């Protein structure tokens, strides 16, 4: 690899690390929130990943076992810079919660009974709900704009299965994945005729 390309690659790795570190350090509310912020950073700001591809990466991250924030960092890091990108993204994602949880666990008894901490956490919960609603809108809007009836039916069916029927999300993701495969195979078969 030429020296100029090596330098760009190192800069990209450093940017991935700092971005995931920053996002992880200032994100409260779980993996779905950090995935949204990753989308804003890597799709909207840096333009390193396309929006459709980000949706695919989120689907992969969600359908894999483990924390969605780490899974999201893995797939985004790998997409952007291979194995080294994966490693720096994981490191950037796990360092802030590791440090914060370590401090909190040491001071747990003091935090548990502190009125101000309890009120702050209550306020954060409301903010997290708004961020998750924003994520849902941002990820669902392109599907609705496509006006593809099958995509709309799959999205609505997945929503009803999760929210009304309370079916485990893993089963919903698997079924949606199988529907996507079947749909692609049918389209290829029709195109071949």
From TrEMBL:
Record keywords, A-Z: Cell membrane, Membrane, Transmembrane, Transmembrane helix
Entry keyword annotation includes Glycoprotein: no
Pfam families, A to Z: Chromate_transp (PF02417)
InterPro entries xrefs: CHR_Transporter, Chromate_transpt
GO cellular component: plasma membrane
Bilayer-crossing regions: 12-35, 87-108, 115-137, 149-182
Membrane topology: Multi-pass membrane protein
Compartments, as annotated in UniProt: Cell membrane
GO molecular function, one term: chromate transmembrane transporter activity
Keyword Transmembrane helix: yes
Xref: PANTHER family: CHROMATE TRANSPORT PROTEIN-RELATED (PTHR43663), CHROMATE TRANSPORTER (PTHR43663:SF1)
Family to which the UniProt record says this protein belongs: Belongs to the chromate ion transporter (CHR) (TC 2.A.51) family.
Name of the protein in its database record: Chromate transporter
Source organism: Waltera intestinalis
